[in-house]
């Protein structure tokens, strides 16, 4: 929680705040995120406006995860900007009755006395700044699709032309039938020159 006591309610008043906070749990995606308890450096600019406090800031924090191509551990730094308006609780009723709510889908954040909770804003800012497919480097060759070896450590790695296991049984059957047909041709006695007599 951050306080606004020193800011006051006079429109136009400014206050700058810098603080290091611990990262909450589950901040990130399945492949990249902020480790729980990691330091998050937050720099804020608080501005008093008619309806509340406009918070503009930047968060910097370390990231940990894995490369989506080679699955090696990944370490990065994240820097994300954000801006959010925290409304005064007593300004909510008047603003809703005077104007239609054009942003009904957006959740309004409120000050709790002289305090505001920055966690949901930080969470959104960090997650939206993360890459969808993090890689250790842009030209990462990834893993061999057949055996899973890391191609960067073995760039000459290759396999002989392998038969798809779905077709291997059919190929064996084809070979068996082919050899059986050839044997039958060899064992078949030659036909006589004339027509064979029909049995009555």
From TrEMBL:
A Pfam family this chain is assigned to: YceD
Region (Disordered): 176-200
Biased segments, Basic and acidic residues type: 187-200
InterPro entries assigned to the protein according to its UniProt record, in alphabetical order: YceD (IPR003772)
Domain of life: Bacteria
PANTHER family (UniProt xref): LARGE RIBOSOMAL RNA SUBUNIT ACCUMULATION PROTEIN YCED HOMOLOG 1, CHLOROPLASTIC
Name this polypeptide is given: DUF177 domain-containing protein
Lineage summary: Bacteria, Bacillati, Actinomycetota, Actinomycetes, Kitasatosporales
